[in-house]
Amino acid sequence: MMTSRHSIQPAQGLRRSVRWGVAMGLFASLLGLFGCDQQQIDKAREKARDTFNAVKPDDMLLRDLKPGVTTETQVRDQMGKPEIVWENSDGSRRLEYPRAPGGLRTYMVDIAPDGKLRAVTQALTAENFEQVQPGMSQDDVRRLLGKPTTVAEYRLKKEVVWSWRWLEDGVNTAGMFNAHFGPDGRVTVTSRSPDPASERP
Q1: What is the pLDDT of residue 19?
Q2: pLDDT tens, 143-176?
Q3: Tens-digit pLDDT profile for residues 73-104
Q4: Residue 134's pLDDT band (boundaries 50, 70, 90)?
Q5: Which CATH number fits domain 46-122: 3.40.190.10, 3.10.620.30, 2.60.40.10, 3.30.1450.10?
Q6: So what's the pLDDT on residue 3?
Q7: Where are the alpha helices (DSSP H) in the chain?
Q8: Fold identical between 46-122 and 124-200?
Q9: Contact 123/104 with Cβ under 8 angstroms?
Q10: In what order do the strands lie in the sheet with 159-167?
Q11: Structure confidence at residue 57 (pLDDT)
Q12: pLDDT band at 27 (very low <50, low <70, confident <90, very high)
């Protein structure tokens, strides 16, 4: 049986279209696969950079940061991703950088409304601990002192205790500052306790 050229050409065109569609589908799948891999690589790099920034020496972490000159972008490039960013009503921001692994320092980086560095301060000081007063909210305390080293819940006493490890003498002697919160999430009292790490045999 004879087949006309008119019936062959549409069949060949259909096969070409199917092959083209399959090829494009495979290409799109490969792009998606490599794109996903690149995203995973970028995330791994970012995590590694943040881990390094969390443990790099303070002199490297704070090197050449100049109030009124250094931008927030430059701060983040050097110090990494902050633990939390506090937005203020005047357009200024506070970036929180707890230090690992000892957790004896937490740096608060204040950014002015113009996006320039205003100041870098060490939050875990006796002066700041004295500012923690009954009635303060958890947000107020967190803005002042940063992320606590430990959080403990005492259900029978109906309280939550946030504790920060810090150098009581500024050099060698570590201790714990504790803020006790009642059921309403406000400070009821503060206390001091020995550093559990220093009491281990």
Answers
A1: 54
A2: 999 999 999 999 999 999 999 999 887 667 889 9
A3: 999 999 999 999 999 999 999 999 998 766 88
A4: very high
A5: 3.30.1450.10
A6: 45
A7: 5-55, 58-61, 72-79, 126-130, 138-145, 196-199
A8: yes
A9: no
A10: 150-154, 159-167, 174-181, 187-194
A11: 79
A12: low
DSSP percent split of the chain into helix, strand, coil, nearest 5: 40, 30, 30
Residue in the block written with tokens 């301060």? 121
Residue extents of the structural domains in the chain: 46-122, 124-200
* 10 SS3 class: helix
Q: Model-level pTM?
A: 0.72
Those residues with Cβ within 8 angstroms of residue 62's Cβ, 6 or more apart along the chain or in another chain: 79, 107, 120
End-to-end CA separation in angstroms for the chain: 97
β-pair partners for 86: 94
Pick the CATH number of 124-200 from 3.40.50.2300, 3.40.50.150, 3.30.9.10, 3.30.1450.10: 3.30.1450.10
pLDDT-above-70 percentage for the chain = 71
Do residues 116 and 70 touch, judged by C-beta distance below 8 A?
Answer: yes
Cβ atoms of 49 and 80 within 8 Å: the answer is yes
Residue 58: strand, helix, or coil: helix
Cβ atoms within 10 Å of 174's Cβ, excluding its own: 17
- Cβ atoms within 10 A of the Cβ of 105, count? 19
